[in-house]
Amino acid sequence: MSQTVLTPEEMEQRIVRYGDLVPCKTAFIDAHTPGSDQKENFTIIGGGVSESPDQHVHIKETPGFNIGAAGQPPRCFNSLHTHRSAEVFFVLKGRWRFFWGRHGGAGDVVLEEGDLINIPTNLFRGFENVGTDYGMIMSILGGDDAGGGVIWAPEVIQKAADHGLILAETGRLYDSKQGEQLPEGVRPMPLMTDAELAEINEAPVGVVVTKLIARYQDMMALAKQRPANVLSADGLITDRPGFSVDFINHHTPLDDYNTDKHEILMVMRGHWRLGWAGGEVVLAPGDVCAVPPDMKRTLAASMTCEASLFRVRNTDDPAGYTNWNAL
């Protein structure tokens, strides 16, 4: 097997540093809607699901899934929507409430820093920063094209129109307050029909809490001898969304290992040394690193204090797979 060899400069091009993240405040249709108008969207790896041509994409090449982030001040919320592929979040900073259901009332749960939630397909979801400071959640979306975009609840599209934003059937957003209008021959995004809305799942609270969430302290305990298998067919969360998620902490350094999969390292806490034949880099909280396949590497916390990260790999499963009968 041939080995991938990168220079430190080439590896640095595959790292998106937390301090270098470029936000977009006009990424989605609710960008002018009161309560949602202070959101910041970050597209880290892949084009994501932003509806704005102003969205900055840090790394365009996708490994079979997309990595993004949302930053919001206290009490700012993201409106009800769903995706055709799984959407996984972990809380990097702050305290967040996730809610779901046709009108957002089927249930809700609060996640703390380091907690992870897998939100399956065919489920309306929203989220709100319920902390006291600016918060950040990191996201993983299945598929190279992130499932084809966002599917908004009808009332979200209707309310956005009252504030000048129109979503085209192409998935692009137009702002009438800025003098923009739909191009000739392009129609507005159609609202979901009653029949389509009737097919949306409600997901009881017990299912979400026991089947779709991994708590940070539980993952820390499980990763004392080996990486914790968080999301996979036989993980803490048993789903197959086109990628797998492991949790690694300072108790589980990895020496000279290799894989034929794309591997994305997303640092939660502490500083980590990533070494390979061509050099070494240090990753800090909030950093995202895309390690290519077939490159022997060493991964270890650079200090003895608490350190943790999530490791995401592509799988052969369909990006839109969710076995609701197993939940």
TrEMBL record:
InterPro entries: Cupin_2, RmlC-like_jellyroll, RmlC_Cupin_sf. It comes from the Bacteria. Residues 79-138 form the Cupin type-2 domain. Transmembrane segments: none annotated. This is Cupin. It holds the Pfam family Cupin_2. Gene3D superfamilies: Jelly Rolls. SUPFAM superfamilies: RmlC-like cupins.
